[in-house]
Amino acid sequence: MENFVWYNPVKLHFGDGVTDKIGKVTAEFGKRVLLVTGKGSAKASGAYEQVVTRLQNEGLTITEYSGIKSNPIVEDVDKAAALGKEKKIDVIVALGGGSVIDSAKTISLAMKYDGPAWDIVTGDYKPKDSTPLIAVLTLAATGTEMNSVAVVQNNCKQQKIGFGNKYMYPRHSFLDPSYTFSVPKNYTAYGVVDLIAHSLEAWFGEGDATLSDRFIIAIIKEAMKNGPDLLEDLENYDLRAKIMYAATCALNGLTSNGKKSGDWGVHGIGHSLSVVYDVPHGASLSIAYPAWMKLQKDRIPERIQELGKALFEISEVDDIIYKLEYIFKALGSPVRLKDINLKIEEGNTRERLKNAMVVSKVDGVVHKLTQQDYETLLDLMA
Q: Global pTM?
């Protein structure tokens, strides 16, 4: 087991009605607020009206930047950061899912930098400060509400990159499960896939941390048990709460303590799908993970078998991969490129996807991928 320091300064407010306090909490950081939102889901859920009202009741001045895409782009980050500087913003409130909060995290750094935000994403500039950030979650999936990681894409460069910075932790995160009632069935399913994928990235990482592994298994089982039921009852508060909490725990450090690292190769594959064809993040992962496990089945059979025994009480590698694929299918998430109307043998699909993986240097931290692996993975995903 590896030495570790677990530092997580996020104050998490979880449960029905927790945003009652958001005005007072936000006012502690200043009067001028940059409200970052998506394309309308927060308004549909009623979260937007509640949050704005509670901010205004504290006499806060709100400047809004809306329209963040589900695969967030760096151009929005630059525009929002420029707006924040112009308005002398004191504090950012991110109201949305992972894409909105990831964008707001990057904006919080970019507001303290005179250059393009992409310099921060690539690591060419190392931030030393950030604008305080408050997160209000409306989609359970990424876990970004309780970590210091963000993902942003650059369409011009055909790159989608995940990066971390200790100044990106939200100061407070508000998680009201009722704010996710309006999330449609497909995106609810993608969120469940995403939290399973985060757990698997830790499982296939490096290091002997048995308690962390037990947390991983517990989180995946929570998703397997409650995810399908939630899809049949989208306004069930208890099921929404269980999935929301599982998604947060899947990427707040709980599953990685004592390990050297997770792997994250599958997320790199998924990011390539998203940046080229704008595939929803969770959907890209349900396509990529079974293919990656088929690629790895003769390389790491013991680790896959341990997973199968813990989750399904089976030990045949092919059966374990089939079972995981079946779970994704049962959620209604795609497991092949053809499920999203992409065919490797038509047009330049293969070339575009492989080029995206090459440009982004898609690799695993532990289980390294080669360009020949890219070819194999494309065939397995077809």
A: 0.96
